[in-house]
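Hello forum,

I keep getting stuck at the same step: I have a sequence, I want structure tokens, and every attempt I make locally crashes halfway through. Rather than fight my setup again tonight, could one of you with a working pipeline run this one for me? It's a single chain of 597 residues.
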Amino acid sequence: MRRLRRHRLALGLMGLALLLGAWGALGVAEVMSARRQAAAAEAAARDAANLVGSGDLEGARVRLGNALDSLVAAQRSLSSPWVAPARLVPYVGSEVRAAEAGVVAVRNTSQATLDLLSFVLADRAPIYAEGRLEPEGLAGLRTTLAGALGVVADARGALNAAPRPRLGFVAERFAEADRVTASLYDTLSGALPLVDRLSAAARGEDPYRLLLVLENGAERRATGGLPGWYTVLHIDETGVSLDAFGSVVGALQARDAAGKHIAVEAPVDYIRRYGEFMANTTLWANVNLSPDFPTVAEVARRLYAVGTGVEVDAAARVDLVGLGYLLDAFPTLTVGDVPLEGAALATDFLIDSYRQFPDDTRPGEQNAFLGEAVQEVFSQLVGGAAADRAAVFSALRRATAERRMALVTGEAAVDSMLAAAGADGGVLPGGHGDLMVTTQNFGRNKIDLFTTTAFEVGLAADDCRVEGGLTLVLMNATPAGMEFMPRGNLVNYGRWMVTVYPPRGASVMGLEVNGQPVGGAFLEEFGRTAVSVIVDADLGESVSVTVRWAETLTQPGYTLTLQPQPLVVPATLAVNGETPVRFVETVRREFPGFCRG
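Reply #2:
Ran it on my machine without issues. Output:
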């Protein structure tokens, strides 16, 4: 009898073990299902982002809906009763709760983004029509933004309340969810005050003025090209109009009683690096020697106020290549009744204008011709020219990603939004692996319509010490027959100031020009060393600049991040012997094996 009871107990325990094993297996299956659904959602969201970038908003909405379906399924799996007991197990429970919080956060973020896309695609009151901003459309946008912000705030709350995960793939997904929700939260938080400000202008309560500077990449500057023309967009209840338009040279070059250009306040780094070139004066030609557009915008707004007596609310820049992207989204635009091809604006159109109005025989006429052409185009744009909406989104994304267009308002929340979207033209923070190079035309000619630029970066690690080297090759590729181009004193001789910004805290090990060590200038800018040297290249020749540095890492892994300079002829980049690729957007390369110990 006692033996029978023992057998029954053993059978009972075995049955319980089998039941628990089956329960655990089902729980594991649900967790793995959630992981697969999360991966599917990630792929769908990535597709949606690419579709938005290409202008296919309807396709993006469909893929974002697919992502939401996958995330709902993932959340359902993690909420399954088969998973519930795992929540009570130390360590395992915290990982499950963190995974669920991550899924909820990404689901909310996807829903907020879908709501915004649906608003854009909906048949609703227009935001802009017949040359004016419409208060009713702006009110609808504000309601949508506020709703999306509330959804994302809930996502942030879910993440903040969750335990910090330690399991590899859970921690990675959690960190990505935290990054995405924080970025969207900042974007929406900044969009609301901007919409409020524009709404006030559209109602006639407080006009809004935007200073826009057009850059000519034929003569390089750090943000893109020489400041060529400017306009002020004025927004009030009557519509959007051009308050002013003209050539920066002459129109804005105010002088004091002694006949000197007027200086304005600027950050200490800016004065230290560019003060000798009169960058912060009404000379204007060198205001954008700094690659950081928020800094340039601050100085430009002050210069405009000094020169005209008018305070502007915001400052923006666009180079002719980026403007061309945007103009091609408006197929009805013309110049002198001739259809305008935006893709040729920064090259063929510009070169033809130089050929038609050579500086040495008809000074100032080419500038006036281009100014009139651009003014004619802008008048059509603000007047409500027919646009391909998908093409507009694609052009804006492309111009922003290539740093050809930037906007700064001076209002903290709005500028944080623009920075999160990469639309403020700011520079990299300068952490481990952050690398940047600028090349600036010091020859006062227009040879950068043809200059080619090639970068090679090499990296090697010895435990946690990283040694890096960057070589830049500039080639003066100006073709024959360009004698009519503006040439300055150097004619077609190339002269550039090259500045390399190694990562913050890195030790600069050497500077070479054409393989020979040189002194150069070592100054501080943006809290990091700026290695600068002026180099020359005759027609058909090239010049190389090499900078070597070393860094000490404090944690495993290394990310090389390179920020491009917008150029007329796109640069190429090769990393550690790779085949060179076009270098027009920020590039990131992961080196997980560095500092593994």
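Residues 11-27 have pLDDT under 50 and may be disordered. If your local run keeps crashing, start a new thread with the error log.
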